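Re: that chain you flagged

S.,

Sorry for the slow reply, it's been a week of failed gels. I finally had a moment to sit down with the sequence you sent. For the record, here it is as I used it:
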Amino acid sequence: MIKQGKCYFTSESVSKGHPDKVCDQISDAVLDEILKKDRTARVACETYITRGLVVIGGEITTRTWVDVEAIARNVIKEIGYDCATWGFNGNTCAVINVIGQQSPDISQGVDVGGAGDQGLMVGYAVNETPEFMPLPLVLSHEILKNLEKARKNKTLPFVGPDAKSQVTVQYNDGKPTRIDTIILSTQHTEDILDKTGSKITEKSKKEIINVAILPVVKKWIDKNTKIYINPTGKFVIGGPQSDTGITGRKIIVDTYGGRCPHGGGAFSGKDPTKVDRSAAYMARYIAKNIVAAKLAPECTVQIAYAIGRDEPVGFYVDTDGTGIVPDEKLAQIARQVFPLTPRGIIEHFKLRNPIYQQTAAFGHFGRKNFPWEKTDKVEILKKLIH
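Prediction finished late last night. Pasting the structure tokens below so you have them in one place:
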């Protein structure tokens, strides 16, 4: 929880073209393609990307076959790496497939409805935005969504696929009051460099600010807000040409921007028997419904599992003393209302559908089109609390 007094909290986001996010999208695209043909498949797909090379591995058990190489190339090109301009080309890069099968020692527990692994998963919600998400993270995501739209529709034709944003919000007594600092680093072509060749022109900076940043942050900035565009000066060499990427390395971007604890498990490339993913979605669903029901202004939920067992070994609700009833009672009521077994979670959210590639950029939470973002348990929670 943001404490009393004045403080500053920061969250970041990364674009679809960031190397780690490229890997997340490939892994989830493979998962989706398999689930289209085999809803009972077990998938744990990991991707690694570097200069001119993509390696796809993990453990997959399925009755079907998909063209992993073609899937990877299509994702890469769709993101925008389809020519030499950005230093990586989905048409010509090497793609290596080293996928194996899931261990039978694991599957014997999962087959009967148990969790695919041990672990703890965390969900969170806060009432400071309509999305019930932390404001710095929401703004960071929205800035990059604007940037991607402007890149694709050629409003900013010099912008490349790789980008990162960061927003620092000032809080007074737990409430967001203004933005202190905004950082946006974006890959770009050389033609917007100034005469020194070491930084982009002021004109280009202003265009980026006006198109990608101001529409999102206008109500939160003031004359003292600092905005940095490509703070090192330039960002011509980016994407996999400049940095390796790995599936699951942006877990804070994917979740709550550092506002609450994280269980440590990544999401992308995993089928819903992996509670790293499915139980994290349920934890968010529970926390969001508690906050939407105005039972607390913010809420953290933790669920823990033992591999092969269906019922959670731990369930924890924490409102940091802000709940209208004790956290213990909230936990008891939540156990009555929400399914917590892996099978129950999968059935409730219909998680065997191929919905995952769309989660792999701009966060898994705070977006209306996902079933774990519904607030359909508000009325029953209110009824049970009184």
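What I noticed first: DSSP finds ten helices and 13 strands in the chain.

Talk soon,
D.
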